[in-house]
Amino acid sequence: MAAQLDELDRKILGELQIDASQSLDEIARKVGSSKTPVWNRIRRMREQGVITRQTAILDAEALGLEACFFVLIRTSEHEAEWQRRFLKTLRERPEVLEAHRLAGDIDYILKVRVKNARAYDQFYQALISEVKIYNVTALLSMEEIKSTTVLPL
Question: Among 97, 99, 125, 145, whose CB has the most other CB atoms within 10 angstroms?
Fold first, then answer.
């Protein structure tokens, strides 16, 4: 169930999405409120699970992780034990930035960030050694056109 948010909540969330390191005073000034109400709203939105965490966004290429692959996975296995092992494997692999279960012909899509094609192959070999997979297709992203963590409010 979606949280009930008013316009001030949305403004606060917008500011936090842009830069969560801003002081409460800065946020309050930008949203037209004062520090205490802004703090109370942030605390409430944390308690409601609207704000799940605050983090730093790093530049992957600056860290030498220049290759981004989208990995399409089809499986013939649908038993609970296989799925548990597969999901555990994905969660333990730091290269996997995102993983989604899909409707349609493809069962899962992964976003994987690695140094290069050789590093992707090492990831791939480790993945298929852990779980049986029917078909894997890896698509190399040639250019990142848009990437954001900012949700439309």
Answer: 99
